[in-house]
Amino acid sequence: PKASKYHLWLGRALGDKADHSGPFAALSLAKKVGPQFEQAVQLAPNDIQARTDLAEFYGSAPSMVGGSVEKAKRIADETLKLDPIAAANMRAQFALSQKDYTTAEREAKTAIDLSKGSARSVLELARIYGKQKHWKEMEAAIQQAMAVPKRRPEDVFFAGELLVGNGRNLNGAIEILRTYLAGPTEEQGPAFRAYFLIGKAYEKVGDKAAAAKAYRSALELASNYRRAQEGLRHVNG
Hints:
- By secondary structure, the protein is an all-alpha fold.
- It is about 75% helix and about 0% strand.
- Helix 4 (about 70-80) packs antiparallel against helix 5, helix 9 (about 155-165) packs antiparallel against helix 10 and helix 11 runs antiparallel to helix 12 (about 210-220).
- The radius of gyration is 18 Å and the shape is globular.
């Protein structure tokens, strides 16, 4: 109960389950997400990841489950003292949830400048371009992020996820995700999900055999992963 990271992951799990549940179950689950993130921050006030998840929840969740514009701004303001780069990214994501693309781009570019072009900050800008369907700019930002020498494993996963999620440069996405799987993986990008994304990419380009193989690889690691099960059924007709 005193481990911040466990509360953080419980909040993430509840949120993910809410995203894939019916409206009544989703409402009940979503109400439990905020308190877990709040507990994570209370136990580890300087943990930037916990603060980021809490700010994202406040900024995007409806008020009936605990969302709050004022609280999202407060978390970003408090984080500014600890990590100005993270604070700028928080503001960018909050603006994005409000569809204020001008502010979102400005804050993301501030984070890029402060971080001297970190891969993660560039990828956050790519996410914003993707939401606006500015595909050329999104793909250029992803390419820029992948050229950063000190990119982290989670950056590589996120780049592949962005491309597959937006249906862009799918062959490039497959290559990026295979690069991720060949190196050290990271807890927010589990290998089974990387295989699933590869399967989705192959499915979108029409290679059902390769898609099925990737889905099976995902299920070998997580046999009850429903999205991979559904993908495999789909490509098998």
